Amino acid sequence: MFPLFGYYSFLFFFLVLCCFPLPCFPARIIPEQITVITTDTRNATWHNFTRFKDAEKGSHISGMSELKKYFQRFGYLSIPDNQNGNFTDVFDTQFESAVMLYQQKLGLPVTGKLDSGTISAIMSPRCGVSDTGPRIHSTKHFAYFYGRPRWERGSPMTLTYAFSPSNMIDYISLSEIRTVFERAFSRWALVIPVNFAEIEDYESANIKIGFFRGDHGDGEPFDGVLGVLAHAFSPENGRFHLDEAETWAVDLEKVKSKVAVDLESVATHEIGHVLGLAHSSVTEAVMYPSLRPRSRKVDLKLDDVEGVQALYGSNPNFKFSSLLESENSSNKGNVLNCRSSKWTFSLAVVSFFLLLMIT
Ligand SMILES: [Zn+2]
Ligand SMILES: [Zn+2]
């Protein structure tokens, strides 16, 4: 009996090993936020926030008031009346609520603690537009600015855009920048009855695009490499500003810098703000507030489309089925992987019981 048992045991383990030759779980489902915090692709100021990792309610860490200012800047926290206009370094109940609101908005596990996933998200390069706050109406996913402002023109409407004659970058040609923006605008124009046309005259354009450095006069100073990448104002303001200090790229394969930022991804996102969309909590959406360096996110997702169409209606030529098809095909890999992992697991279980019966 013993040799027979040994033989089947060997066969069983062989079968199990055959069933799991490769990772069976789709890598994309693992939350990226719990990856190890890296230091070379972070904004210098926000990098300091690593020292608050694992802080929770009751903690007192020197300099935590700086982190509270970050939360204030992006709409999660206001200075309490009883603290003389300053934040303290104490992780109090109010700050815990702000952390929970942030985690909810960024699609993170809501723990109320500064876990590594939360710290990682906080330090990620992002858009300078505030996420939430008392003056922003928010639905489950996509969101609007307070009052749901939109451009008011006849339908179909045409909005004009122009590049600043004096605030541009010189290492990417104007024609390449034009092409990038043309593609970015066309993605939105495909789904709503709005056309975008480039004009020469910056002053009279509806949408004014330029690259600016540091304090540039609108009360929203840029902060150097990474950190805040760009910002745009709600309708019908039209100001569209990119941080000149970033290493902008139109083709990431040709740019080696670790801190390169894809211009088209940021342009597509900021156009969403220009049209009236605020930040979405859907991680895959173009309107999600952060973007990792060297990553590209240019395709509008269902959440982006539903949000903007609720403001402007649908482009008569747009078909939801084509969008759903493209979303399905991008998710197909995951679905197939899940199915195959279920299959291999079932096979292993059946093999196990069969072998038990035989032995
Ligand atoms: Zn934004
Ligand atoms: Zn600005």
UniProtKB/TrEMBL annotation:
Alphabetically, which GO biological process terms does the record hold? collagen catabolic process; extracellular matrix organization; proteolysis
- How the protein sits in the membrane? Lipid-anchor; GPI-anchor
Q: Where is the Peptidase metallopeptidase domain?
A: 147-314
Xref: CDD domains: ZnMc_MMP
Q: Which SMART domains match?
A: ZnMc
**Cofactor details (free text):** Can bind about 5 Ca(2+) ions per subunit.
Q: Where does Zn(2+) 1 bind?
A: 216, 218, 231, 241
Q: Where in the cell is it found?
A: Cell membrane
Query: This protein's superkingdom?
Result: Eukaryota
Query: Known InterPro entries for this protein?
Result: M10A_MMP, MetalloPept_cat_dom_sf, Pept_M10_metallopeptidase, Pept_M10A, Peptidase_Metallo, Peptidoglycan-bd-like, PGBD-like_sf
Which amino acid positions bind Ca(2+) 1, per UniProt? 246
Active site, UniProt feature: 270
GO molecular function terms here?
metalloendopeptidase activity; zinc ion binding
PANTHER family listed in its UniProt record: MATRIX METALLOPROTEINASE (PTHR10201), METALLOENDOPROTEINASE 1-MMP (PTHR10201:SF249)
Q: What is this protein called?
A: Metalloendoproteinase 1-MMP
Instruction: Give the source species.
Output: Herrania umbratica
